[in-house]
Design brief:
Elements lengths: L7 H12 L20 H14 L17 H19 L3 H7 L3 H15 L2 H20 L4 H20 L2 H15 L6 H15 L5 H41 L4 H35 L5 H35 L5 H20 L15 H26 L13
């Protein structure tokens, strides 16, 4: 029909705009503007379709020329239209669309949209939707549609965050960091989290993965701190079994000491000691083997494993002493001295090497008090050696170095 119309160019223009297909604009010849070398009706066709569809890429088809429209003018018009719609609907998606357009043409619209819609409030609203979807996926993890919605929301979050100025970014991140770390009340743990995250953050500009990584690091460090406290308490329990030796001068305490320590470890600490070891091993698997945190966890695992092995070995040696008494190889008096040497010298000297990952963990037994215990243990071991010589060579027995205690 347009081929027979008096003004075929505007007829073709009308139907192309109605169809929304920019290819239909190519039929417009621009016969009234042949002398100018331009085609305003066709350029106007592209401009109108671009603005109607909010698709600035259509503007690249504009040829421009005298009395016609430019690509920049078209892009600017698309941005104006998107800006008006976005502000009216309070939809930040429009700002994201404008940010992807050539900024030389739409810098004013970009700033206006950011001022009106790009805010921490917008991110908070987006975060609420993300949390709701995450909860829904917990009960329906294979739902592809929910997964897609979650991905789209996270992409939108990153885009909005990118549009923010540095001050807003810092304020938002600070708010999120405080929420993630709200249960961290130990300064050493907070410092460890900060150090590990700072190293990671330098290579990642995505706010989603940054916050997810911060949450993972926080959980790991808190777990490591908890395990460290538990391990340190278990080691202190071992120390406490022996502290009475320093304060009580009765011979009977040495004989009872082995029994009460064994009973307490088996009933209250032994399984937890093994559990602590398994948790340290789990923590080691969560870190890269080259990282400092892996080395820290491995160091504490090795120390605690040493305590575990030493406890096992200690009671095996005590059993050997008891077996010698049962077989009449030694008497009860000698067995008493040997048990004291084994328990104090071998066991306690090793457990003092355990050092917690976080230095704020305070041992229940002070270094000074425990140092006294170790000195006593060494003296006890020397007496054991002296009494051994008396049994081996009675004629040369050094009685001055032997005492009932």
């Amino acid at each position: 029909m347009c081929g027979y119309a008096p003004d075929s160019d505007h007829c073709y223009q009308f139907w192309a705009v109605q169809s929304g297909n920019p290819d239909d604009c190519e039929r417009i010849k621009g016969t009234k503007f042949k002398d100018t070398g331009s085609n305003p009706p066709r350029d106007k066709c592209y401009l109108t379709i671009a603005q109607n569809s909010d698709d600035y890429t259509v503007c690249s088809k504009i040829k421009w020329g005298p009395m016609s429209y430019s690509q920049e003018e078209c892009i600017d018009g698309v941005a104006d239209d998107i800006l008006k719609k976005s502000i009216a609907s309070e939809d930040v998606d429009g700002c994201i669309k404008i940010s992807k357009m050539p900024q030389t043409s739409v810098s004013a619209q970009t700033e206006a949209c950011k001022k009106e819609l790009v805010s921490i409030k917008a991110l908070d609203a987006n975060d609420t939707k993300i949390e709701t979807l995450i909860e829904s996926l917990k009960s329906d993890s294979s739902n592809i549609e929910l997964q897609k919605q979650l991905k789209d929301l996270k992409d939108k979050k990153q885009q909005v965050y990118t549009l923010m100025n540095e001050g807003e970014k810092q304020e938002y991140f600070k708010k999120q960091r405080e929420e993630i770390m709200k249960d961290v009340d130990d300064t050493d743990v907070a410092s460890a989290i900060s150090k590990e995250f700072t190293t990671y953050r330098a290579g990642d500009g995505n706010i989603n993965t940054q916050l997810e990584k911060l949450e993972q690091i926080t959980q790991k460090q808190q777990t490591l701190k908890r395990l460290d406290d538990e391990a340190n308490t278990l080691v202190d329990q071992v120390k406490e079994q022996m502290q009475g030796v320093v304060n009580d001068k009765q011979d009977e305490i040495v004989e009872k000491m082995g029994e009460s320590a064994t009973q307490r470890i088996e009933n209250n600490g032994w399984e937890r000691l093994k559990y602590a070891l398994s948790n340290y091993k789990w923590m080691m698997d969560k870190y890269e083997k080259w990282s400092k945190m892996y080395e820290d966890a491995k160091g504490k695992y090795d120390k605690l494993k040493g305590v575990y092995d030493e406890v096992m070995g200690t009671y095996q040696r005590i059993d050997e002493v008891n077996k010698m008494v049962a077989e009449w190889k030694i008497d009860a008096g000698k067995a008493k001295v040997l048990k004291g040497a084994v328990l104090l010298d071998k066991w306690l000297e090793y457990t003092t090497e355990y050092v917690p990952v976080f230095w704020s963990t305070i041992s229940k037994v002070s270094k000074e008090t425990f140092g006294t215990v170790i000195k006593l243990a060494k003296k006890r071991a020397e007496r054991s050696t002296a009494i051994e010589k008396c049994f081996d060579d009675p004629a040369n027995c050094d009685t001055d170095n032997i005492s009932a205690y």
